[in-house]
Amino acid sequence: MAQEPGNRHEAERRVSGRIQREVMQLVLDRKLRPGDPLPTESELMDDLEVSRNSVREALKALQALDIVEIRHGYGTYVGQASLTPFVDGLTFRALTRPDDEMDALNEILQVREVLEEGLIRRVATTVSEPELDRLEAVVERMEAAGREGRPFPELDREFHELLYGTLGNAFVPQLLGAFWTVFRRVALARQWPGGPAPELTARRHRDIVRALRSRDAEGAERAMTDHFSGIEAAVTGAPARGRPDARGVF
Question: What is the pTM of this model?
Fold first, then answer.
């Protein structure tokens, strides 16, 4: 008796999921690195005892997650496993929420705040003088822009990436950068008018560096809290402006 369409689809989904897990395990077992070639489709078919179509569907799903990279005409390679799929998914989730337009923006900001305030004390004990000099150089560029009333979102991102890059944990700046990107995308789509005045934002970053120079962990945390409090006030007090324009979000 022929399978019902729904049952057939569920069976195919389970097979695809199993193949995806086995391909990922193969990468781990063979200690492959980004850019290394994977076995051919034929080899995967033989090893996993599945059809060519099942292998292709599983590889397409892994490509969407940046776990594999399919180079047509060349083969399949281990991907970068970047956070791009996470960023795209979280951005889409935030933009499709049915509640208040600014709620999602504020919640993303709260996640960033919890992560950064929880890490800044550790930065205060590990950051070196050359690293502080680099942070100060970014603040000086912020101050120059602030005097002219120019916003500086990319300098803000650079500051925070440098700040937490001092911890020596490569995942931390990547994760924080992911949430930063989601926040900027959602802010663009929601037509958020922006945070505190550029000059004030520059001053709050200066306060963070000053506290770190003094190895004042409590003061650094307090300065970071003040920084996020200013952004939160701007988000919660900003009225929605007409229909959001999501062009350029992805």
Answer: 0.74
Per-residue pLDDT, 181: 93
Give 98's contacts (C-beta < 8 A, 6+ positions apart): none
Report pLDDT digits (tens) over 215-233.
999 999 999 999 999 998 8
Q: Do residues 91 and 250 touch, judged by C-beta distance below 8 A?
A: yes
What is the overall mean pLDDT for the chain? 87
Query: How wide is the angle at C-alpha 191 spanned by C-alphas 186 and 193, nearest 5°?
Result: 110
Q: Residue 37: beta bridge partners?
A: 77
Handedness of CA 139, 145, 151, 152 (dihedral sign): negative
The model's confidence at residue 146, banded by pLDDT at 50, 70 and 90, is very high
Question: How many residues are there in the chain?
Answer: 250
C-alpha distances in Å from residue 196, one per residue of 122, 193, 225 = 27, 10, 14
pLDDT band per the 50, 70, 90 thresholds, residue 245: very low
User: Any alpha helices (H) in the chain, and if so which ranges?
Assistant: 5-29, 41-48, 52-64, 84-95, 103-126, 129-147, 153-165, 171-189, 198-213, 217-236
Element (H, E) at 23: helix 5-29
Q: Which two tokens stand for residue 236?
A: 């919660």
Residue 115 has what pLDDT?
A: 93
φ, ψ of residue 127 to 5 degrees: the values are -65, 135
Q: DSSP states of 85-109 as a string?
A: HHHHHHHHHHHT-SS-TTHHHHHHH
